[in-house]
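Following the same procedure, backbone shapes were mapped to integers, yielding the entry below.
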Amino acid sequence: MKLNSNKNIQIYFANSYWQYTSLNITIPLNEKNPYLYALNQLVKGDNLPQDCLNEFPIGTKINSLRIENGIAYVDVNKQMVTKLKELKWSTDIDMSILSYNIFNFDSSITDIVFSFDQENINDFNGVKKSEFFAKTKELSTDEINEKLDHLREKFNNMTPDQITGFVKSQSPTSPISPASATSYLATVCVDPGHGGTEPGAVGTYNGTQYNEKSINLAIGLALRNDLLSRNINVIMTRTTDATVGINARYAIANNNNVDLFVSTHCNSSSDSSVYGSSVLYPNNHDTLFSQTVANLVHDRIYSSTFLNKWTDPYSVGSSIGVLYNTNMPAILTETGFMSNTSDLGNLIISSNQTAIGQAISYGIWYWFFV
């Protein structure tokens, strides 16, 4: 976005929906490099928009920015990378936020070259606009076979007849008992969206306000319990009303090498008549696997709960950081609209929250083992 006549620039922060929220900032009259000023306001994290967290470590600074022949040359202090490594957080989301802002500064920018205190770091060779905003990346045959081999390893101690018997014996009403198994068959990271200082969407029903974070947690815990009953191990990003940063959420999944990442959410719209459910999946990695589990989960949700279909599952890009930056198949469920009276009235009922969690669990189990 080009600088307008009032010397204002929009910068974009990642919000707790893993989308972008804009903030209009005024550039000082004597500022010679408005874009550099804007980026430093971004990384400082002052005056954060509602529902946004500052994902940049304290002390992050953009040293310089120049644009030549469609290429933006950006130098960042190395302290940002050092701090992120100390926190064991991925650098991907910070670089994505910077890139998103830089590409939106000026439509003529086609490439970004990063350096860190004038040094190059191999992980950041550059960002191409065409790749940053790329559509779905399809997996190659070799990549698909590699993923299938990884799943098959889970049955390496079972004969073909045992595997067949196991699959046939399973049903939604007769999950495998953890006590009867010697080890978990898979590991899933369950990420209840929002929490703590991030309420998420807020809805009002019969004069009472309800926060999305509480519903997400109830669904996430029900999902956890049902997965455990199916002998699927679960790692939670939160089990209480706690604030968890975007980076931390996908880092938990990546650091534990889980087989699937699932983030539970509700939706909201300015149009209160919109209702129903959908599931999101990443467009940059494990796309076919993620799309498959998204379809299975979504089918189960609207066939076995009160929820209707809003849209078919769809892919998203870097704006949804927990999907974009995971290292495994990943989905984000949007189970109803907080802004719709009918959906909300059902979402606040404990038995419905449990049913949604169980529906998600069944879709996941079916993807793993059938």
User: Anything to note?
Assistant: The chain is about 35% helix and 20% strand. The CA atoms of residues 202 and 211 lie 5 Å apart. The two ends are 48 Å apart (CA to CA).
